Amino acid sequence: MKKLINYLSPPKILVLGFAIIIFIGACLLTLPFATEDGNGLPFLNAVFTATSATCVTGLIVVDTGDTFTMFGEIVILALIQIGGLGFMTFATLLFLLLGKKISLKERLLLKEAFNNISMAGLVKLVKRILLFTALIELIGGLILSIRFSFDMPIGKAIYFGFFHSISNFNNAGFDLMGGFQGLTAYVADPFVVLTICALITIGGLGFIVMNELYEYRETKRLSVHSKIVLSATVILTVGSTLLIFLFEYTNSKTIGDLTGLGKILGSFYQAVTPRTAGSNTLPIGDLTHSTLFLTILLMFIGAGSGSTAGGIKITTFAVLAATLWAQIRGKEDVVLFRRRIVIETILKALTVAMCGMVIVVFVTIFLSITEQKHSFMMYLFEATSAFGTVGLSMGLTPELTPAGRILIILTMFAGRLGPLTIAFAITKRRKPEAFHHPKGNIMIG
Questions:
Q1: Is 142 within a domain?
Q2: pLDDT 10s digits, 29-53
Q3: Domains in the chain: how many in total?
Q4: Residue 190 vs residues 16, 138, 286: alpha-carbon distances, Å
Q5: CB proximity list for 170: less than 8 A, separation 6 or greater
Q6: Residue 104 belongs to domain spanning
Q7: Residue 187 to residues 58, 156, 178, 236, 266: CA-CA distances in angstroms?
Q8: Which chain regions cross the lipid bilayer (predicted)?
Q9: pLDDT grade, residue 185 (50/70/90)?
Q10: C-alpha angle with apex 205: 407 to 197, nearest 5 degrees?
Q11: What are the pLDDT digits (tens) for 190-246?
């Protein structure tokens, strides 16, 4: 086994590791005592659920709260936690507990898993990640438990509180409320909305950003990466909240009949959850087409690199937007926060975005072939949600054919690991060209 690990490249080990975790989780969910009916999940549904949990997506073919026993729910929760933080984080923790040294190969794997630039301080970062995660999930779980205790027995409230805290911090979106309506009963509840939105946002910033914010007291500085993630997060969240408020203001099926505060909270939650949590307080199928299209864009963008979220990542979007702005103004350099973005970074961003777009287009076309009873918007929404590991659905997921479910499984897997492996592949040291072809002029536009 050790020889195999030494032979495989870091991306292959990550793919293999996630695949093994998904397989183990799927096998556990097929056990009779994993479901309320005592029959266990059919294997394809079990693989779908395990993939959705491990890839912190949240798309479901069966309702979590109504279908699974506590054992099944804990299996899902464990998969969410492992998938959100990455199995290498837990492997490193095990090595540290056993007093083993972290080898160069394992440090390379950690660098790949966190999409980090260098290997310096990775073990220290892992320790802090585990501490940050435990602390944030504990605070979120306590707040939600207190709130839920007004609606259910205290034991159930604590269980629900911590389940939803872990699920949303890891941007998974699984819930236990029963039915496919999510958290719609709490659409105007500030305690639930603000707590879960905080968990989603913090989890989506990325552990590198969280670590820099923690060290800011001493360093008094943030990297360009952190500045981009923080500023873009605020801009997208505020801008999306305002747009959704306008788009849904008169929609009686969503926020139209709510109070002023309820309208704001409903719009705010719907602006935050596509990045890329997947829980919802508004019925997705009843949203206006304007809001649905905005949600698709947000799901495709995602959140911060090295976070629990998916998508092409917010830094990729920011670099491409800055490149567009520089070209429009006729500038030679792309500048963000008084720092010039090198051409290699721009090409990486373009590659990741184009790969994501190709995946979404291909999956949308394929779904339109296998699932012929629905609208194009549903296919595009489902494909983007799976690629962005979001978990929002217009209601298509439970009705997917076996071929459609297999396709979404592969899309969730690619969405969770694809950008990481692409980033690793294109950051390999380039060999100098033996010769250069003559330049060719092509008319653009």
A1: yes
A2: 999 999 998 898 999 999 999 999 9
A3: 1
A4: 41, 19, 22
A5: 56, 80, 81, 83, 84, 85, 203, 308
A6: 9-424
A7: 19, 21, 16, 21, 6
A8: 12-31, 43-62, 74-98, 129-150, 183-208, 228-247, 292-325, 346-369, 406-426
A9: confident
A10: 85
A11: 999 999 999 999 988 887 888 888 888 888 888 888 899 999 999 999 999 999 999
CA distance 108 to 136: 27
Q: Which amino acid is at 413?
A: F
Q: What is the pTM of this model?
A: 0.88
- Whether 61 and 50 have beta carbons less than 8 Å apart is answered as no
| Rg (the chain; Cα; Å) | 22
> CB-based burial of residue 395 (10 Å sphere; 0-12 exposed, 13-18 middle, 19+ buried)?
middle
* End-to-end CA gap in the chain: 53
- Name the token pair of 255: 């926020």
How far apart are alpha carbons 434 and 423 in whole angstroms? 25
Domain presence at residue 441:
no
The total number of residues shown for the chain amounts to: 445
Whether residue 431 is contained in a domain is answered as no
Please check whether residue 433 lies inside any domain of the structure: no
